[in-house]
Amino acid sequence: MSLFTYYINGLSAKQHTGSKVVSDAYSGFLSEPQEVVFSTKLPPFGSSESKDANAYAFYYPPTNKDYQGPDNELPPLLVLSHGGPTSVASSVLQSKIQYWTSRGIAVADVNYGGSTGYGREYRERLYPHFGEVDVQDCCAAALYLADSGLVDRKRLSIMGGSAGGFTTLACLAFRPEVFAVGASLYGISDLEVLAKETHKFEAEYPVHLVGPYPEARAEYIRRSPLYSVDTLACPAIFLQGLEDKVVPPNQATLMVNALKEKGIRVAHIEFEGEQHGFRKSENIVRALEAQLYFFSQILGFETADQIDPVPIFNDPSAANQ
Questions:
Q1: What whole-number distance in Å separates Cα of residue 135 and Cα of residue 33?
Q2: Is residue 77 within 8 Å of residue 69, measured between CB atoms?
Q3: Looking at per-residue confidence, does 203 or 113 come out higher?
Q4: Within 10 A of 199 (CB to CB), how many other CB atoms are there?
Q5: Which of 75, 122, 196, 263 is least buried, going by the fewest C-beta atoms within 10 A?
């Protein structure tokens, strides 16, 4: 196996087993991340006291030298909301991002307020505003790229896992005017369940992110997408491991049932033997392909890959009935 070092700024690749530069093999296929700084707001939102601020993301343009999008179209955008939620999106080479960019879809990996790596003040923007600051910044990133003429405003999508899945669902529920579709991977839909049932290691985490429970129970309910499905109008796909002890599988099931009752297009794939995050290669592949298939059905494009269809509830097309 060869070991590579990738210098993302300038995108060169060097093989450590020899001095030969092998970037030519990947030239035209790897999307180079571009760090973008965009304007956002700080809480309290909707108030004259809300101040302007900056947030950050890595933007990956669609890249595939063998294909070119239509001249009269801008690419769809996939916003990634990382987990943690106080984790960080980095610019290291990630095959899951290149999967999308090589298929004509732009990606924005957002470091919303609360992300590590930008100083304590930036990270603590999220305390106790989880479900608010992260939502604001993910939406602001998507709208900034659309307003900059880089992506199609009508084909904005968002995806996240775990805490990032919560942010995804919160964006769809509380900012339904921004995104056209979303994907939640083992995401949180009910913060109250998380506060009461999460594992011991993170038992006190919600206190910092939202507030003490049960004293702040009303805030947990207010920020939970499950209790705001009346405002959720965007199709979504849910992917969940059935042995997940961090985010119980019923978190996805409750959301899926609520969307089915509303008549919104929704897909639900459960993986036997998977926990919090998918580890089996066949399930990792299936999860990626399922998201691409679902997005293609909602955003109106054809996939170049031969992908097994995903059953979609409330889909008007005969193929999915």
A1: 22
A2: no
A3: 113
A4: 9
A5: 263
The length of the chain in residues reads 321
What are 40's strand-pairing partners?
Answer: 53
Q: Quick one: tokens of 86?
A: 């106080």
- Please list, in sequence order, all residues whose beta carbon lies within 8 angstroms of the beta carbon of residue 112, skipping any fewer than 6 positions away: 55, 81, 126, 133, 134, 136, 137, 138, 141, 167
Q: Which is it for strands 52-60 and 77-81: parallel, antiparallel or unpaired?
A: unpaired
Determine the Cα–Cα distance for residues 100 and 140; give it in Å rounded to an integer: 21
How far is it, in rounded angstroms, from Cα 224 to Cα 174? 10
Torsions phi, psi for 80 (to 5 deg): -105, 125
Plot region of 314 (φ>0 → left; ψ -120 to 50 → alpha; else → beta)? left
pLDDT one-digit tens code per residue, 140-150: 999 999 999 99
Query: How would you classify the pairing of strands 52-60 and 12-15?
Result: unpaired
> To the nearest whole number, what is the mean pLDDT of the chain?
89
Q: Give exposure, 62-88, as e/b (b: 16+ Cβ within 10 Å).
A: bbbeeeeeeeeebbbbbbbbbbbbbbe
> Does residue 59 carry a pLDDT above 70?
yes
Tokens of 179: 């995104």
Spatial separation of the C-alpha atoms in residues 212 and 208, rounded to whole Å: 8
Q: What is the pTM of this model?
A: 0.90
Sheet holding 77-81, edge to edge: 34-41, 52-60, 106-111, 77-81, 156-161, 181-185, 236-241, 266-271
DSSP sequence for 85-119: TT-----S--HHHHHHHTTT-EEEEEE-TT-TTS-
Q: Check whether 281 has a pLDDT greater than 50.
A: yes
Query: One-letter amino acid identity for 311?
Result: P
